């Protein structure tokens, strides 16, 4: 019998798998303080979650020089590492219903990947903490790819999993995820429990938007069949 084609569900991390906004905001505030500049509002910081660090800082301080963006990004990494070493990171809980949704999708034959603006180290820490590392066959991070919405992470995930783009779905909470999915030629499912609202997700090209993880399996059946 021929091997069935691989169906790949690619998840964003921050705002999609885990609620990490408190740590991200604290680290970004510390990074701006490190260069003696008033930090952006937390609403502004939440709006750039999902971008790679330098691009995120550039979005927060668009009139600053590139050297400033690079310096703040480095300070952000240092602040996050310091918080972890001091045991000062707040819990980054999984969103309700995630594990049950993964179980349902796995039983239906889906394979899983991650495409995130986090670093390799940051993603590994999250997945290990929640006992999820074994669930994912491909992990793509900002360490090896251009920032979202560039499609590089999805292209690499598809290649590593030997998946058909027409049977792949990107699941994320930001317009960057939706635009990345569109650029890569895969389906885009937006989730509203993260950092961008439904209107932004739809405007960025989401094929479907869901409001709880319990709705994901049904959305995936529709997307895979579309």
From TrEMBL:
GO MF annotation list: hydrolase activity
Keyword Hydrolase: yes
Coiled coil: none
Keywords: Hydrolase
Tagged with keyword Transferase: no
Superkingdom of origin: Bacteria
Pfam (any one): HAD_2
Gene3D superfamilies in the record: HAD superfamily/HAD-like (3.40.50.1000), Putative phosphatase, domain 2 (1.10.150.240)
PANTHER family assigned to the protein according to its UniProt record, in alphabetical order: HYDROLASE-RELATED (PTHR43434:SF24), PHOSPHOGLYCOLATE PHOSPHATASE (PTHR43434)
Protein name: HAD-IA family hydrolase
Species the sequence originates in: Sphingomonas hominis
């Amino acid at each position: 019998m021929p091997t069935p084609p691989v169906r790949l569900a690619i998840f964003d991390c921050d705002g999609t798998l885990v609620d990490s906004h408190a740590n991200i905001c604290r680290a970004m505030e510390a990074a701006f303080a490190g260069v003696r500049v008033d930090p952006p509002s937390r609403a502004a910081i939440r709006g750039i979650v999902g971008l790679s660090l330098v691009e995120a800082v550039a979005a927060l301080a668009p009139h600053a020089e590139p050297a400033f963006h690079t310096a703040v990004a480095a300070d952000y990494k240092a602040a996050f590492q310091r918080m972890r070493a001091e045991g000062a990171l707040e819990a980054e809980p999984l969103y309700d219903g995630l594990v049950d949704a993964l179980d349902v999708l796995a039983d239906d034959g889906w394979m899983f990947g991650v495409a995130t603006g986090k670093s390799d180290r940051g993603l590994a820490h999250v997945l290990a903490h929640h006992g999820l590392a074994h669930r994912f066959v491909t992990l793509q991070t900002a360490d090896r790819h251009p920032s979202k919405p560039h499609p590089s992470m999805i292209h690499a995930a598809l290649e590593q999993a030997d998946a058909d783009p027409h049977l792949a779905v990107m699941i994320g909470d930001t317009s960057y995820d939706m635009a990345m999915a569109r650029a890569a030629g895969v389906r885009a499912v937006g989730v509203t429990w993260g950092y961008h609202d439904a209107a932004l997700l739809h405007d960025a090209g989401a094929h479907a938007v869901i409001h709880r993880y319990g709705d994901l399996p049904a959305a995936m059946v529709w997307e895979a069949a579309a």
